[in-house]
Design a protein that fits this description.
The structure is a homodimer. Chain A is α/β, with parallel strands linked by helices. In chain A, about 40% of the residues lie in helices and about 25% in strands. The first copy, chain A, is built from 13 helices and 17 strands. The longest helix of chain A is centred in the last third of the chain and has 20 residues.
Chain lengths: ~425, ~425
């Protein structure tokens, strides 16, 4: 059980409608068990092609992970293809039928007759319960190879994989281990990071370190191969410390940690309350902060003061200030932060005003210009940023993350 | 020249480091020429596996598009594999060598000796110039099949494809055209839609109609194959009308339209101003609305009244109401909508309060319970929703979209 192939099924993955993100996620999971993915393919909704893909992959690897094609419609053919490939007839499983009916009843709905087909499995195969949808997964074996059929919907697939597939694959202890850990950075460019890390990022090194960048955030992946988990974990630990030493405060977290989560923890630890006043980010910063479960403990209130009247009326920004300096200006960012702190009684407050684009820029105030005000301990600071005008969403996201990162740096001891 | 396979080469696409977005982009391009992608695979940096993939795909299709493995390092093996597959030796092409040297000179750099290998091509193959990097692409033919090897870096690949591959493939005029259009629906489940459309969604029909679902939204893809563009367009037009007739107000838009965009257009057309008061969605609704360029024309203000104090202080929700019914209740949703309308002077205002989870639910008020209030023309209506408690993000997203959709239905004539 050392090698795997991933087969994604669906015409929508072959005509440019949808990018298959499932395979990449599964690869990472398998790798953490020491299972290397040595092939991945996308196959259309055609029974023959699916069977051919099963055959080709089963000659190559021990484990096949199949996603998609388990839905209730005519072009969901994974069930049929697997039955033909295994040479086992499909049989109605009354227990599955009841579960699917219950899924609909729980939502006050009646099961459509088309869903009946989802209660059929090849004889001898095991059903994998789907806690997020109607399509059960399928687990079958043939000549020592394992076949896991999972739904194509990412949230359903991930839950089913984590609950049933991963534990099943984890019970083979004779395998080497590959562990991966992520170091999350903000506020330092990818090439600067590469320079600072130098030889640590050389190819062929173990652990291997590589980086990916996305709108201001850089993720460093540390991938360690070892005989056992403890050893791999130690190697990662050592590298993490070295990386943190070299990159300093640019490192904000590890693995799945996010900036909103890290900032939330800092606010909780320091028993501080946050409020935000947003213009150009339009609620994005509040949305990021409140996306964290339990954020009501430290987030008091947010204002999306999109119109000038709202800035004046709700946060006491003086109309003269807006008149004199414009809504996108250092004094208005300051007034927004102070207004939010004052109105909510928060300990720390952010004000953001800027030009997200694509329209609304000028020579003096181009798209990407953003002012962020930060009120903390009775003092307000303002910083000016000129983000690349690469798109409304990117400018807004970068502004919100930059504000969060600033809060993090303030609260960091 | 009607079918294609895409082969992506690289270990980084098999260990979870990178998602292959090239294939999806190429699929769309090919489809616009009437070429269907009937298979896609990811292959590791191993010569034998690459050759096997070439063989398998060449038995299936007319055109192979290969990305990646053209770099200068030891694990860039596409060149070797293609030469072996074609049974043609690699030969040094002096003209390519000069171009690569010039690429470096133009940047004030000296060519590293490792780049020499990029000047080699299988005998008889054509080089595809790379205006964005050092690796030339390769165009070869064997037994009537076409092989295009392109770089893996998306920007280089896209430029090379557009400059050389697309024009080359476009000169076969005997081929039909395939066009795709999307019908965007909200508020009706995938299986209900399938039942209503009935035979229209049968496999093998032309146009082909299939569906994908994501958190309350269902997209129907209408794919029409015809001899020429005008004919394909007419077929899509006819089907769109049929679909709209069958699904009624569940259809909110077409192709790349989004709910926030459609609602924005309706608000603009009706010269109405919007305000929102959010509790559980925490700014997500405001963020969606203001994500649309020009939204300042119709969006006045948003409140993220996360704490009870904020609801009382900023929007005049009576503390007795919260005390008596709880913050998540019909009367509080009503008071939030009315408070937002009152405070901002908006014509239409939304109030949302609910339990996004994962904590905070109870028997009477489970996770997923959401009340949405809608103020319009002096009247306020409230609806109760019980969304599947499948995750904080999904509950929040569904609540925000449901509110937007309600605004759409109100403004729809």
């Amino acid at each position: 059980m050392n090698t795997a192939c991933i087969i994604a099924i669906g015409n929508e993955l072959l005509n440019g409608q949808r990018v298959d993100t499932n395979s990449s996620w599964i690869q990472t999971q398998l790798l953490s068990l020491g299972i290397q993915t040595v092939g991945a393919s996308v196959v259309p909704d055609e029974t023959d092609r699916i069977i051919t893909a099963f055959q080709a992959a089963s000659e190559l690897v021990d484990v096949l992970i199949i996603t998609g094609g388990l839905g209730p419609t005519d072009d969901d053919l994974t069930r049929d293809a697997l039955a033909q490939f295994l040479d086992k007839p499909l049989e109605l499983r009354e227990d599955l039928l009841r579960e699917i009916e219950q899924f609909f009843e729980g939502r006050g709905l009646k099961m459509a007759s088309t869903n009946l087909v989802q209660a059929y499995l090849p004889t001898g195969a095991k059903a994998l319960p789907n806690s997020k949808g109607t399509a059960p997964g399928i687990y079958a074996q043939k000549e020592g190879k394992l076949y896991f059929c999972l739904p194509g919907v990412p949230s359903e697939m991930k839950t089913m994989y984590s609950e049933y597939v991963h534990p099943e694959l984890a019970i083979h202890p004779d395998r080497g281990v590959v562990l991966m850990s992520k170091v999350c950075c903000f506020g330092m460019g990818e090439s600067v990071i590469a320079e600072k890390l130098g030889d640590m990022m050389k190819r062929g090194r173990n652990p291997l370190i590589n980086s990916t960048a996305h709108i201001g955030e850089v993720a460093l992946h540390i991938i360690a191969a070892a005989d056992n988990e403890a050893q791999a974990r130690r190697m990662i630990e050592t590298d993490r410390e070295l990386v943190c030493g070299l990159l300093g405060e640019a490192v904000y977290g590890f693995d799945d940690q996010t900036l909103p989560e890290v900032v939330g923890t800092l606010l909780k630890e320091n028993r501080l309350k946050l409020a935000v006043a947003e213009s150009c980010t339009g609620g994005l910063l509040a949305e990021m902060v409140t996306g964290i479960p339990g954020s009501s403990e430290y987030f008091l209130a947010g204002w999306v003061t999109y119109s000038n009247q709202a800035k004046v009326r709700d946060l006491g920004v003086s109309p003269e200030l807006i008149e004199k300096y414009g809504a996108v200006s250092e004094p208005v960012a300051r007034a927004l932060a102070e207004g939010a702190a004052h109105a909510s009684g928060a300990d720390i407050a952010v004000g953001i005003t800027g030009i997200a684009g694509p329209e609304g820029g000028s020579g003096k105030k181009p798209v990407g210009l953003v002012y962020i005000g930060l009120f903390f301990k009775g003092k307000t600071e303002v910083q000016e940023f000129r983000f690349s005008p690469v798109g409304r969403e990117a400018v807004r996201r970068r502004a919100a993350l930059t504000a969060l990162n600033w809060v993090r740096l303030k609260l960091r001891v």
